[in-house]
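Worked Example 4.2. Consider the chain below.
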Amino acid sequence: MSNNPQTVFLTPRPGLLVLNPDTGKPLAPDGEHLVKTVYWRRRIREGAVSESKPAAAPAAPVPQPQEF
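Applying the procedure from the previous section yields the following structure tokens:
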């Protein structure tokens, strides 16, 4: 049995404001990585949040050579 907490990426259901009990602030609309506690398991079960994958970060722009 592992003592490592399971982390998940959670996003709130559109139109809902779901508070993070650890920070007292709303969960970001784009989602956040969080430890899957009893609180978050309940929010998943009731449909307030869903497990998802984070959006892919945009590729860094390739620097263009400068002309002198």
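The first strand starts at residue 7 and ends at 12. The radius of gyration is 17 Å. Compare this with Example 4.1 before moving on.
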